[in-house]
Amino acid sequence: MQYKNIIRILGLLVTLLSVTMLPPALISMIYRDGGGVSFLMAFVFCLFAGLLSWYPNREQKGELRAREGFLIVVLFWTVLASFSAVPLMLLEQPNLSVADAFFESFSGLTTTGATILTHIDGLPHAVLWYRQQLQWLGGMGIIVLAVAVLPMLGIGGMQLYRAETPGPVKDSKMTPRIADTAKHLWYIYLFLTVTCTLSYWAAGMNLFDAICHAFSTIAIGGFSTHDLSMGYFDSPLINFVCVFFLLIAGVNFALHFAVVHSKSLRTYLYDPEFKVFISIQLVLTLICFAVLISFNVYESGFDAFDQALFQSVSISTTAGFATTSFADWPTLLPILLIFSSFIGGCAGSTGGGMKVVRVVLLYLQGIRELNKLVHPKALFSIKLGTKALPNRVVEAIWGFFSAYAAVFVICMLALLAAGVDDITAFTAVAACLNNLGPGLGAVAANFSSLGDFSKWVLVIAMLFGRLEIFTLLVLFTPAFWRS
After folding, report:
1. What is the DSSP string of 66-115?
2. Terminal C-alpha separation, the chain
3. For the purposes of burial, counting CB atoms within 10 Å of the CB of 301, is it exposed (0-12), middle (13-18) or buried (19 or more)?
4. Does residue 166 have a cis peptide bond before it, meaning omega lies within 30 degrees of 0?
5. Is the per-residue pLDDT at 207 higher than 80?
6. Residue 228 vs residues 120, 265, 351: alpha-carbon distances, Å
7. Cα(173)–Cα(187) distance, rounded to whole angstroms?
8. Is 108 exposed, middle or buried (0-12, 13-18, 19+ CB in 10 A)?
9. What pLDDT score does 61 carry?
10. Which of 32, 48, 215, 395 could form a disulfide with 132 if both were Cys (CB 3.0 to 4.6 A apart)?
């Protein structure tokens, strides 16, 4: 294991991370409502720590193997999220404990969107910006950004890309060089962020809110600059803009690249995962709309449809924005939406959950097993579109599902042992493991009521969800550490 090389890489990334603490300091100077000193102190601390890790090991260069790739991916998220908590611990407003600061930073960087903060409207603009910025940086993955930059520093990137990229098939690349692949992803990501910002601005948000909400929308994060989230704006047009860009961000970014490259929107229609993803959104919206109408929850059909569409897309894509308290809807709907977050977005998107393609393959595998019961000697293949998949892919999907369920159960039992009630424990773990954000019960609005032990458990759940289980679990196997 190339430990010195790994420390060198982490030092470089912590140094780069320190630069991200300067924009909040600048925001503090513009709005003059505090927080700037804390971010400047955090900048100095992170810069010093990064250089201290990099400089003694600056000559330790070498091609990374698969094992180093997995270890670095896990360390990237744990180390960078930990350093991201530094300015939050230094702030006077809000005054956060260590557990709260780590919870907020991990939630931001993993794009979970769960928060322990209350009275968000009264926080300094620097803090509001920093939270949204964390989600934006975590949206496409710190590793993909690093893969685009680190090759220039003599660090191979393919191992990192395979370890980080979500989804069951990780060896395909959009362009021959991995650095070009990462750059193309970021070009698309930046374009969508700018377009979303301008759309929010045109729809009625002020420029600060437009930028901040574009950060968390394209990242499918869910943080907001207001306690009422998107409900603060009370605008169907803003709701529609949010839904539109959440759907775009929930689609595989490689598919976006293929559309741009082919210059044809029909490319979307050729992708089976995209069609299932859109179908899920339509079905959820129609179910929510029908139930809301039948229970007369809203005065007009338009309001019912607006709320049904927004909450369905926001929760099922694992964004977690809210325009109303969906926990107060008829019981079927909040439970249905929480379960929909287990599916999440498409593979290769900024969404959380198990990913649509995995659920599709689980369904196809179930159908194949039923067919085998009827025709035991027949050979059935599983196809994704027109492409037959090897059995190792299907086996990996079942392994992932089993591990996902096991992690969920263990985390939920830990919360129950800490005295959390059953609904809160179930939905809190679902919200963090699926990188969703809001839950039900005591965590419907925020997670401030939970104890420190529960918060640390949920931080671990966020990491498992963001790293898609196996990347983190593999570190606990004895074979991984054998030379």
Report:
1. HHHHHHHHHHHHHHHHHHHTHHHHH-SSS---HHHHHHHHHHHHTT----
2. 7
3. exposed
4. no
5. yes
6. 9, 36, 22
7. 16
8. buried
9. 77
10. 215
What does 294-320 look like in DSSP terms, one character per residue?
HTT-SSSHHHHHHHHHHHHHHHHTT--
For 387, the 3-state DSSP assignment is: strand
Q: What 3-state DSSP class applies to 171?
A: coil
Amino acid (1-letter code) at residue 43: F
The pLDDT of residue 167 is 53
Looking at residue 382, its amino acid is I
Question: Using CA atoms, how far apart are residues 99 and 230, in angstroms rounded to an integer?
Answer: 27
Q: pLDDT tens digits, residue range 269-296?
A: 988 999 999 999 999 999 999 999 999 9
pTM above 0.70, yes or no: yes
Amino acid at position 137, single letter: L
Backbone angles phi, psi at 416, to 5 degrees: -65, -40
In angstroms, the CA 231 to CA 238 distance is 10
DSSP state letters, 315-360: HHTT----SS-GGGS-THHHHHHHHHTTT-S-TTSS--SS-HHHHH
Confidence of residue 390 (pLDDT cuts 50, 70, 90): confident
Please state, in angstroms and rounded to a whole number, the distance separating the CA atoms of residues 57 and 471.
26
